[in-house]
Amino acid sequence: MRHCRQGLRLGCPCRNGDRTGQPGGHPPRSNRLNPRSFNRHLYKNRNLIKRFFCRIQQFRRIATRYDKLASSSLSFVYLACTIA
After folding, report:
1. How many angstroms separate the Cα of 3 from the Cα of each of 9, 36, 43?
2. Quick check: 40 and 46 in contact, CB under 8 A?
3. Where are the domains of the chain?
């Protein structure tokens, strides 16, 4: 039985892509006997995109979708991208 939240690191399929056969999105631990596959280029891209969206979400207007029109919402996303 796999319990990821209780400290057992047996390789949770939701974290390392065992179900889909894809390499994991997080780097493997250094003390594992059989390290899982890991693509550093994909991890860098995923991390960059995740940090970008977290930075954009700091703007309340974007996070809550305050604008009703798509054009005004998109223009504020452009503005937030230039500021962030």
Report:
1. 8, 18, 24
2. no
3. 8-38, 51-84
Q: What is the DSSP letter of 34?
A: S
- Report how far residue 55's alpha carbon sits from residue 49's, in angstroms, rounded to the nearest whole number: 10
Number of helical (H) and strand (E) elements in the chain, helices listed first: 4, 0
Query: pTM here?
Result: 0.53
Tell me which residue has tokens 């970008």: 52
Residue 7, amino acid: G
How distant, in Å, are the alpha carbons of 49, 67, 75 from that of 72?
A: 23, 6, 5
pLDDT in tens, 15-70: 544 555 555 566 777 787 877 777 788 888 888 999 988 888 888 888 888 888 88
Residue type, 31: N
Place of tokens 């207007």: 61
- DSSP-derived secondary structure letter, 46: H
